[in-house]
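User: Can you help me understand a structure? I only have the sequence.
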Amino acid sequence: MPLPGDRSYPVLVGRDVAVDLATHLPGAGVRAGRAAVVTQEGIPLSVDPGVDHRVFTIPDGESAKTLSTLEGLCRSFAEWGLTRGDVVVGVGGGVVTDVAGFAAASYHRGVPVVHVATTLLAQVDAAIGGKTGVNLPEGKNLVGAFWQPSLVLCDTAALDTLPEREMRCGLGEVAKYHFLGGPAPEERALDDLSLDQRVARCVEIKAAVVAADEREGGRRAILNYGHTLGHAIETTGRYDLRHGEAVAIGLVYAAELGRALGRIDADRVAEHRRIVEGYDLPTRLPDGADADELLAVMARDKKALDGLTFVLDGVLDSGPDGASRGHGVEVVSDVDSEMVRSVLETVR
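Assistant: Let's start by predicting it. Here is the structure, written out as C-alpha coordinates:
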Protein backbone atom coordinates (compact mmCIF):
# COMPACT_ATOMS: atom_id res chain seq x y z
CA MET A 1 0.00 0.00 0.00
CA PRO A 2 2.00 3.04 -1.19
CA LEU A 3 1.85 6.18 0.94
CA PRO A 4 4.17 9.17 1.36
CA GLY A 5 6.97 8.96 3.89
CA ASP A 6 7.23 5.87 6.06
CA ARG A 7 3.50 5.07 6.26
CA SER A 8 3.39 2.56 3.41
CA TYR A 9 2.51 -1.00 4.38
CA PRO A 10 2.08 -4.44 2.82
CA VAL A 11 -1.32 -5.89 1.94
CA LEU A 12 -1.17 -9.67 1.46
CA VAL A 13 -4.01 -11.40 -0.38
CA GLY A 14 -4.47 -15.16 -0.60
CA ARG A 15 -5.70 -18.31 1.04
CA ASP A 16 -4.45 -18.92 4.59
CA VAL A 17 -2.17 -15.86 4.70
CA ALA A 18 -3.36 -15.27 8.30
CA VAL A 19 -1.82 -18.57 9.41
CA ASP A 20 1.63 -16.97 9.21
CA LEU A 21 0.72 -13.75 11.03
CA ALA A 22 3.64 -14.13 13.45
CA THR A 23 6.04 -14.40 10.50
CA HIS A 24 4.56 -11.43 8.66
CA LEU A 25 4.71 -9.02 11.62
CA PRO A 26 8.51 -8.52 11.71
CA GLY A 27 8.61 -8.17 7.95
CA ALA A 28 6.13 -5.30 8.25
CA GLY A 29 8.26 -3.61 10.89
CA VAL A 30 5.99 -4.62 13.81
CA ARG A 31 8.09 -5.65 16.80
CA ALA A 32 5.53 -5.55 19.58
CA GLY A 33 5.86 -6.86 23.10
CA ARG A 34 2.20 -7.89 23.30
CA ALA A 35 -0.85 -7.96 21.05
CA ALA A 36 -4.45 -6.99 21.82
CA VAL A 37 -6.56 -9.10 19.45
CA VAL A 38 -9.92 -7.44 18.80
CA THR A 39 -12.60 -9.66 17.29
CA GLN A 40 -16.24 -10.75 17.55
CA GLU A 41 -17.97 -13.95 18.59
CA GLY A 42 -18.37 -16.32 15.69
CA ILE A 43 -15.45 -15.06 13.59
CA PRO A 44 -14.24 -18.33 12.02
CA LEU A 45 -10.57 -17.48 12.32
CA SER A 46 -8.17 -17.40 15.24
CA VAL A 47 -4.69 -15.99 14.95
CA ASP A 48 -1.39 -16.39 16.75
CA PRO A 49 0.64 -13.17 16.67
CA GLY A 50 3.64 -14.99 18.13
CA VAL A 51 3.78 -12.78 21.26
CA ASP A 52 1.87 -12.61 24.52
CA HIS A 53 -1.68 -11.67 23.58
CA ARG A 54 -5.19 -11.30 24.89
CA VAL A 55 -8.47 -11.47 22.97
CA PHE A 56 -10.96 -8.61 23.35
CA THR A 57 -14.45 -9.29 21.97
CA ILE A 58 -16.80 -6.54 20.80
CA PRO A 59 -20.54 -6.97 20.03
CA ASP A 60 -21.74 -8.09 16.60
CA GLY A 61 -23.30 -5.97 13.90
CA GLU A 62 -23.28 -2.35 12.79
CA SER A 63 -24.86 -1.41 16.14
CA ALA A 64 -21.46 -2.17 17.75
CA LYS A 65 -19.88 0.83 16.00
CA THR A 66 -20.56 3.26 18.84
CA LEU A 67 -18.62 5.53 21.17
CA SER A 68 -19.63 3.30 24.08
CA THR A 69 -18.01 0.29 22.38
CA LEU A 70 -14.89 2.35 21.80
CA GLU A 71 -14.79 3.45 25.44
CA GLY A 72 -15.23 -0.10 26.70
CA LEU A 73 -12.45 -1.38 24.45
CA CYS A 74 -9.98 1.35 25.48
CA ARG A 75 -10.76 0.80 29.16
CA SER A 76 -10.05 -2.91 28.68
CA PHE A 77 -6.74 -1.98 27.05
CA ALA A 78 -5.90 0.20 30.04
CA GLU A 79 -6.81 -2.52 32.55
CA TRP A 80 -4.50 -4.93 30.73
CA GLY A 81 -1.74 -2.32 30.57
CA LEU A 82 -1.43 -1.97 26.78
CA THR A 83 1.39 0.38 25.78
CA ARG A 84 2.65 2.10 22.66
CA GLY A 85 5.18 -0.69 22.38
CA ASP A 86 2.39 -3.20 21.79
CA VAL A 87 0.07 -3.76 18.82
CA VAL A 88 -3.67 -4.00 18.22
CA VAL A 89 -4.74 -6.79 15.83
CA GLY A 90 -8.25 -6.53 14.40
CA VAL A 91 -9.61 -9.88 13.22
CA GLY A 92 -12.94 -9.71 11.45
CA GLY A 93 -15.01 -7.66 9.05
CA GLY A 94 -15.51 -3.96 8.55
CA VAL A 95 -17.03 -3.35 11.98
CA VAL A 96 -13.97 -4.85 13.66
CA THR A 97 -11.44 -3.04 11.51
CA ASP A 98 -13.26 0.29 11.95
CA VAL A 99 -13.55 -0.04 15.74
CA ALA A 100 -10.13 -1.66 16.35
CA GLY A 101 -8.48 0.92 14.10
CA PHE A 102 -10.17 3.84 15.86
CA ALA A 103 -9.28 2.42 19.27
CA ALA A 104 -5.65 2.02 18.17
CA ALA A 105 -5.62 5.60 16.83
CA SER A 106 -7.09 6.99 20.05
CA TYR A 107 -5.49 4.92 22.84
CA HIS A 108 -2.27 6.57 24.02
CA ARG A 109 -2.78 8.81 20.96
CA GLY A 110 -1.68 6.02 18.68
CA VAL A 111 -0.79 2.33 18.93
CA PRO A 112 0.22 0.26 15.85
CA VAL A 113 -2.63 -1.72 14.32
CA VAL A 114 -2.73 -4.77 12.05
CA HIS A 115 -5.88 -5.92 10.27
CA VAL A 116 -6.75 -9.53 9.47
CA ALA A 117 -9.76 -9.10 7.20
CA THR A 118 -12.19 -12.04 7.19
CA THR A 119 -15.04 -10.66 5.06
CA LEU A 120 -15.10 -9.58 1.44
CA LEU A 121 -16.20 -6.08 2.46
CA ALA A 122 -13.20 -5.68 4.75
CA GLN A 123 -10.77 -7.15 2.24
CA VAL A 124 -11.68 -4.87 -0.65
CA ASP A 125 -12.56 -1.76 1.32
CA ALA A 126 -12.86 -1.35 5.08
CA ALA A 127 -9.43 -2.68 6.13
CA ILE A 128 -7.56 -0.73 3.45
CA GLY A 129 -6.68 2.96 3.53
CA GLY A 130 -6.61 3.95 7.18
CA LYS A 131 -10.14 5.33 7.66
CA THR A 132 -11.52 4.32 11.06
CA GLY A 133 -14.59 5.41 12.96
CA VAL A 134 -17.89 4.80 14.67
CA ASN A 135 -21.46 5.87 14.03
CA LEU A 136 -23.76 8.37 15.68
CA PRO A 137 -27.58 8.20 15.58
CA GLU A 138 -27.36 11.09 13.10
CA GLY A 139 -25.22 9.20 10.58
CA LYS A 140 -22.56 6.64 9.76
CA ASN A 141 -18.86 7.13 10.53
CA LEU A 142 -19.32 10.71 11.77
CA VAL A 143 -16.63 10.25 14.46
CA GLY A 144 -13.28 8.76 13.53
CA ALA A 145 -9.65 9.21 12.58
CA PHE A 146 -7.19 8.43 9.80
CA TRP A 147 -4.84 5.78 11.18
CA GLN A 148 -2.91 3.64 8.72
CA PRO A 149 -2.34 -0.02 9.66
CA SER A 150 1.12 -1.51 9.67
CA LEU A 151 -0.04 -4.62 7.80
CA VAL A 152 -3.25 -5.99 6.26
CA LEU A 153 -3.87 -9.68 5.65
CA CYS A 154 -6.77 -10.55 3.33
CA ASP A 155 -7.26 -14.26 3.99
CA THR A 156 -9.58 -15.42 1.23
CA ALA A 157 -9.96 -18.85 2.84
CA ALA A 158 -12.13 -17.13 5.45
CA LEU A 159 -14.65 -16.36 2.71
CA ASP A 160 -15.46 -20.07 2.32
CA THR A 161 -17.72 -19.97 5.39
CA LEU A 162 -19.05 -16.43 4.89
CA PRO A 163 -22.87 -16.32 4.92
CA GLU A 164 -24.44 -15.37 1.59
CA ARG A 165 -25.74 -12.02 2.87
CA GLU A 166 -22.27 -11.09 4.14
CA MET A 167 -20.76 -12.04 0.79
CA ARG A 168 -23.32 -9.84 -0.99
CA CYS A 169 -22.36 -7.03 1.34
CA GLY A 170 -18.82 -7.13 -0.03
CA LEU A 171 -19.97 -7.60 -3.60
CA GLY A 172 -21.60 -4.17 -3.47
CA GLU A 173 -18.16 -2.66 -2.96
CA VAL A 174 -16.65 -4.87 -5.66
CA ALA A 175 -19.34 -3.58 -8.05
CA LYS A 176 -18.20 -0.05 -7.24
CA TYR A 177 -14.62 -0.81 -8.29
CA HIS A 178 -15.81 -1.71 -11.80
CA PHE A 179 -16.23 2.05 -12.32
CA LEU A 180 -13.10 3.28 -10.55
CA GLY A 181 -10.42 1.35 -12.41
CA GLY A 182 -9.95 3.57 -15.45
CA PRO A 183 -11.31 3.67 -19.01
CA ALA A 184 -14.02 1.25 -20.06
CA PRO A 185 -11.82 -1.66 -21.29
CA GLU A 186 -10.03 -1.79 -17.92
CA GLU A 187 -13.26 -1.59 -15.94
CA ARG A 188 -14.55 -4.80 -17.48
CA ALA A 189 -11.35 -6.64 -16.57
CA LEU A 190 -12.76 -7.41 -13.11
CA ASP A 191 -15.34 -9.68 -14.71
CA ASP A 192 -12.66 -12.10 -15.88
CA LEU A 193 -10.65 -12.51 -12.68
CA SER A 194 -10.66 -15.24 -10.03
CA LEU A 195 -11.83 -14.26 -6.55
CA ASP A 196 -8.29 -13.85 -5.19
CA GLN A 197 -7.31 -11.80 -8.23
CA ARG A 198 -10.47 -9.70 -7.96
CA VAL A 199 -9.74 -8.88 -4.31
CA ALA A 200 -6.16 -7.98 -5.17
CA ARG A 201 -7.30 -5.77 -8.07
CA CYS A 202 -9.78 -3.92 -5.84
CA VAL A 203 -7.00 -3.34 -3.31
CA GLU A 204 -4.75 -2.08 -6.10
CA ILE A 205 -7.38 0.41 -7.31
CA LYS A 206 -8.05 1.68 -3.80
CA ALA A 207 -4.33 1.93 -3.02
CA ALA A 208 -3.78 4.17 -6.03
CA VAL A 209 -6.59 6.50 -4.95
CA VAL A 210 -5.52 6.65 -1.30
CA ALA A 211 -1.86 7.20 -2.18
CA ALA A 212 -2.88 10.31 -4.11
CA ASP A 213 -5.15 11.64 -1.37
CA GLU A 214 -4.60 9.97 1.99
CA ARG A 215 -6.91 12.18 4.07
CA GLU A 216 -9.77 12.66 1.64
CA GLY A 217 -8.96 16.22 0.73
CA GLY A 218 -10.10 15.68 -2.84
CA ARG A 219 -9.89 12.64 -5.09
CA ARG A 220 -10.28 10.03 -2.33
CA ALA A 221 -13.94 10.99 -2.11
CA ILE A 222 -14.53 9.01 -5.33
CA LEU A 223 -14.30 5.86 -3.17
CA ASN A 224 -17.74 6.92 -1.91
CA TYR A 225 -19.29 6.22 -5.31
CA GLY A 226 -22.81 4.94 -4.62
CA HIS A 227 -22.49 5.70 -0.92
CA THR A 228 -24.44 8.96 -0.61
CA LEU A 229 -27.81 7.30 -1.09
CA GLY A 230 -26.46 3.99 0.25
CA HIS A 231 -25.51 5.52 3.59
CA ALA A 232 -28.82 7.38 3.75
CA ILE A 233 -30.72 4.10 3.33
CA GLU A 234 -28.60 2.53 6.08
CA THR A 235 -28.92 5.50 8.43
CA THR A 236 -32.72 5.39 8.40
CA GLY A 237 -32.33 1.90 9.85
CA ARG A 238 -35.75 0.58 8.83
CA TYR A 239 -34.80 -1.64 5.91
CA ASP A 240 -33.37 -5.15 5.86
CA LEU A 241 -30.38 -4.22 3.73
CA ARG A 242 -26.66 -4.77 4.33
CA HIS A 243 -24.10 -2.11 3.47
CA GLY A 244 -23.18 -3.54 0.08
CA GLU A 245 -26.81 -3.97 -0.88
CA ALA A 246 -27.54 -0.33 -0.04
CA VAL A 247 -24.44 0.77 -1.98
CA ALA A 248 -25.62 -1.26 -4.98
CA ILE A 249 -28.87 0.73 -5.04
CA GLY A 250 -26.77 3.86 -4.62
CA LEU A 251 -24.65 2.95 -7.65
CA VAL A 252 -27.70 2.60 -9.88
CA TYR A 253 -29.14 5.83 -8.46
CA ALA A 254 -25.85 7.69 -9.07
CA ALA A 255 -25.88 6.48 -12.67
CA GLU A 256 -29.47 7.66 -13.17
CA LEU A 257 -28.61 11.01 -11.58
CA GLY A 258 -25.56 11.30 -13.84
CA ARG A 259 -27.76 10.70 -16.87
CA ALA A 260 -30.30 13.30 -15.67
CA LEU A 261 -27.45 15.82 -15.42
CA GLY A 262 -26.26 14.97 -18.93
CA ARG A 263 -22.98 13.44 -17.73
CA ILE A 264 -23.52 9.93 -19.13
CA ASP A 265 -25.86 8.24 -21.58
CA ALA A 266 -28.39 5.42 -21.35
CA ASP A 267 -25.81 2.79 -22.36
CA ARG A 268 -23.60 3.74 -19.43
CA VAL A 269 -26.60 3.50 -17.06
CA ALA A 270 -27.33 0.06 -18.50
CA GLU A 271 -23.71 -0.95 -17.79
CA HIS A 272 -24.22 0.00 -14.11
CA ARG A 273 -27.36 -2.07 -13.95
CA ARG A 274 -25.62 -5.01 -15.67
CA ILE A 275 -22.77 -5.02 -13.16
CA VAL A 276 -25.03 -4.68 -10.11
CA GLU A 277 -27.53 -7.29 -11.30
CA GLY A 278 -24.64 -9.58 -12.22
CA TYR A 279 -23.73 -9.75 -8.55
CA ASP A 280 -27.40 -10.49 -7.71
CA LEU A 281 -27.71 -7.19 -5.86
CA PRO A 282 -30.80 -4.94 -5.56
CA THR A 283 -31.29 -2.02 -7.94
CA ARG A 284 -34.42 -0.40 -6.46
CA LEU A 285 -35.29 1.50 -3.30
CA PRO A 286 -36.83 -0.62 -0.54
CA ASP A 287 -40.59 -0.50 -0.22
CA GLY A 288 -41.81 2.49 1.76
CA ALA A 289 -38.65 4.54 1.35
CA ASP A 290 -39.41 8.17 2.23
CA ALA A 291 -37.88 10.69 -0.19
CA ASP A 292 -37.96 13.57 2.32
CA GLU A 293 -36.16 11.49 4.93
CA LEU A 294 -33.53 10.31 2.45
CA LEU A 295 -32.94 13.89 1.23
CA ALA A 296 -32.45 15.11 4.81
CA VAL A 297 -29.90 12.40 5.56
CA MET A 298 -28.04 12.93 2.26
CA ALA A 299 -27.76 16.64 3.11
CA ARG A 300 -25.77 15.65 6.22
CA ASP A 301 -23.30 13.53 4.23
CA LYS A 302 -19.64 14.29 5.02
CA LYS A 303 -19.05 15.37 1.41
CA ALA A 304 -21.90 17.89 1.50
CA LEU A 305 -19.88 21.09 2.00
CA ASP A 306 -21.72 22.96 -0.75
CA GLY A 307 -25.29 21.73 -1.03
CA LEU A 308 -26.32 18.18 -1.93
CA THR A 309 -23.13 16.44 -3.06
CA PHE A 310 -22.64 13.18 -4.96
CA VAL A 311 -19.87 11.21 -6.59
CA LEU A 312 -20.98 10.85 -10.20
CA ASP A 313 -19.75 9.16 -13.34
CA GLY A 314 -19.05 11.18 -16.48
CA VAL A 315 -17.22 11.20 -19.79
CA LEU A 316 -13.60 12.25 -19.35
CA ASP A 317 -12.18 15.07 -21.43
CA SER A 318 -10.86 14.09 -24.83
CA GLY A 319 -7.15 13.40 -25.22
CA PRO A 320 -4.78 15.36 -27.50
CA ASP A 321 -5.95 13.33 -30.49
CA GLY A 322 -9.55 14.28 -29.85
CA ALA A 323 -10.57 10.75 -28.87
CA SER A 324 -12.64 10.17 -25.73
CA ARG A 325 -10.66 8.84 -22.78
CA GLY A 326 -13.56 6.82 -21.41
CA HIS A 327 -15.37 7.49 -18.17
CA GLY A 328 -14.36 8.68 -14.72
CA VAL A 329 -16.08 9.57 -11.47
CA GLU A 330 -15.75 12.85 -9.59
CA VAL A 331 -17.41 14.84 -6.82
CA VAL A 332 -20.29 17.03 -7.97
CA SER A 333 -21.63 19.61 -5.52
CA ASP A 334 -24.75 21.74 -5.25
CA VAL A 335 -27.01 19.30 -7.08
CA ASP A 336 -30.58 20.60 -7.34
CA SER A 337 -32.74 19.04 -4.63
CA GLU A 338 -35.76 18.70 -6.89
CA MET A 339 -33.70 16.77 -9.43
CA VAL A 340 -32.38 14.55 -6.64
CA ARG A 341 -35.95 13.90 -5.51
CA SER A 342 -37.18 13.28 -9.07
CA VAL A 343 -34.45 10.76 -9.83
CA LEU A 344 -35.25 8.89 -6.63
CA GLU A 345 -38.53 7.93 -8.29
CA THR A 346 -36.61 6.23 -11.14
CA VAL A 347 -35.15 3.69 -8.70
CA ARG A 348 -38.30 3.17 -6.65
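Now, to help you interpret it: The beta strands are 11-14, 34-40, 52-58, 87-92, 113-117, 131-136, 139-146, 151-155, 310-315, 327-332. Confidence is low (pLDDT under 50) at residues 183-188. Let me know which part you'd like to focus on.
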